[in-house]
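Backbone Fold Data
Goal — fold tokens
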Amino acid sequence: MSHDHSHHHGHAHGHTNYLPAALSITLLYAAVEAGAGWWAGSLALLSDAGHMLTDALALALAAAAAWAARRPPTPRLSFGLQRIEILAALGNAGFMLAVIIGIAWSAADRLLHPVPVQGAVVTAVALLGLVINIGVAWLLAHGESTLNTRAALLHVLGDLLGSVAALASGLVIQYTGWTPADPLLSLFICALILFSTLRLAREAVHALLEGVPQGLTLQEVGQRMAAVEGVESVHDLHIWSLSSRHAALSAHVVVHDLEAWPRILAALLERLQADFEIGHATLQPELFKPVLYAIDEPEKPLFRP
């Protein structure tokens, strides 16, 4: 059987520089927050500073992955380095889990052994951090939307929530003197970040396992392909992610007339691109033979018009 390939590689442009800018801002504030947290004796600030430093690494990985994903294919890496962003996202999720464990451990220790906290310092630094994190989150949210940049944005949103918790902690301690507010709010933020981190890790693992990309189903894609004029059925349909921006597809297409295949192929590729934004498809034509296709194999579902 012959194979027909269609390749289309789209790229998002114009927002790559947001990651380095976000990295610089994050590193600068992390240093300020760490110093202030040590001076004020605030676990919320120290934890958030550690979180910020982890975010700096996450943003550095994201920037490197965004650059690497645009490198051209090579003879040994025929798809290029597009999937490196998925690996970076998974690595970021792992780092976040480590940070969550560290913060939770320190918070539990603080609850058992309270220490004095300077509420006014915590409030001022947390307010500054809130403004900075909103700015960084805005930069990333208005950049390209990939799994990798979403991972970086997740870190920054975690920092934003951390700043809110630190601000609340500072205000409570400043006006009531109740120091357990500091570790308790740290634990609350840990729970919020954990939920998002696990979801991100699940999406990254799904992509690495070549699962069907989010928003697509085999049933819908197969039915749309089978509805193209001249197609009898579609089987051995596979859809997977090359990266969070690019999906790939392969399938066997049963037709009544192989001479009409060029026209059918063009129609299929146009439909895949227009309906599902799938620009990389490998389609193998097969001549319809009633005897062979009389019985559907359960493990190989057939999609018919």
In short: The chain has a mean pLDDT of 80. The helical segments are 18-40, 43-68, 84-112, 119-141, 147-176, 181-208, 218-226, 261-276. The longest strand covers residues 231-241. The chain has eight helices and four strands.
